[in-house]
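Severity: low
Component: inverse-folding endpoint
Summary: output formatting inconsistent between runs
Steps to reproduce: submit the following structure tokens with default settings.
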């Protein structure tokens, strides 16, 4: 995914030095730049990236005359870093809204093939995270586990344990008395996590 994302966004950016009349024309122009070298899925990758950038309102159509118009990239995205930044932000936001949780390190590796963008990815994740993000991710995971054939009783135990986790308030400071209580809470987190995972047959084989 990383190489496809990087090369496609670069080509899309470069293509705007030439005239394109529509998003479809943009896709075709990028594919033409690949000179017929069409590795598996590259067409779908280009189409998806153009879709994401369009969703982020990166493009604008300007009328040339009565019969023609040209698709332009908006001035605020004329620098590649800005275009790539809005792609990353929009794409990650779309995934978070589905309930899937991916770590900043994983996002950096997926989108860039390198973990050095982890901090930038974390900023984007925090931008889209809400108070119910964890709950939504658990609900999404429950759907996946149900489709995988996990028994309903085990699903219920898993849901109870994991939805209890965010209710455990950890307040760690320099006070020894408070720290003892904090460590007890951490032990409770570990215990609850273990109980939740043990409900899944895959972890008990």
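Observed output (run 2 of 3):
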């Amino acid at each position: 995914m990383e190489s496809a994302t990087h090369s496609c966004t670069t080509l899309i950016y470069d293509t705007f030095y030439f005239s394109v009349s529509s998003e479809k024309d943009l896709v075709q122009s990028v594919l033409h730049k690949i000179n017929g070298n069409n590795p598996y899925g590259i067409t779908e990758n280009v189409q998806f990236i153009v879709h994401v950038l369009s969703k982020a309102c990166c493009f604008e159509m300007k009328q040339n005359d009565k019969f023609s118009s040209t698709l332009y990239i908006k001035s605020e995205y004329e620098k590649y870093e800005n275009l790539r930044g809005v792609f990353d932000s929009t794409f990650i936001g779309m995934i978070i809204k589905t309930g899937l949780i991916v770590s900043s390190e994983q996002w950096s590796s997926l989108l860039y093939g390198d973990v050095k963008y982890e901090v930038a990815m974390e900023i984007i994740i925090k931008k889209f995270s809400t108070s119910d993000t964890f709950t939504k991710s658990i609900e999404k995971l429950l759907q996946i586990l149900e489709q995988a054939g996990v028994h309903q009783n085990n699903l219920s135990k898993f849901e109870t344990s994991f939805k209890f986790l965010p209710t455990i308030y950890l307040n760690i400071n320099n006070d020894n008395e408070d720290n003892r209580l904090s460590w007890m809470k951490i032990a409770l987190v570990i215990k609850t996590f273990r109980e939740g995972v043990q409900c899944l047959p895959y972890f008990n084989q």
